[in-house]
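# nightly structure sweep
# worker-07 picked up a monomer target from the shared queue
# config: single-sequence mode, recycle default, output format = structure tokens
# input follows
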Amino acid sequence: MINRILIFLLVLAPGVVAAATTCSFSSTPAMSFGAYDDSSASPTDATTSMVVSCARNGGPTPTNATLQIGTSVGSGLIATRSMRSGANVMNYNLYRDSGRTQVWGQTLGVDTSFTSITVPNNGSASGTLVIYGRIPALQNVPTGAYSDSVQITISP
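# output follows
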């Protein structure tokens, strides 16, 4: 009886373990705001797109690829991200919507975003997510090359 149970478990285990969906970025996104005019009353906006590719071997379809954007290296925050040029700081943020009202963060179900990708079994498919950026107007900052980095996590 024990031998039969072990054989039964060995036969089922490969099917359970093999079902998986994995997602990855097709490229590392970068956002360029261009020149910033600190005397302009209008914010400086930018966008970038991120292509997400998913592969599926069993498991459900469609796949929701969820994108999380972590804290700013410059500020250590999500609510107010900061770019730096030496000791100089310029605030900005990343958003999930074109109106730039929904800050993009890393709390699942709260401030992340997803794209639904229909992935055929034993196949792959891609989807695109747009990241919206904004530098608020009237920041009195010296001329310089400002930069920041954030950690981006994708999960199926």
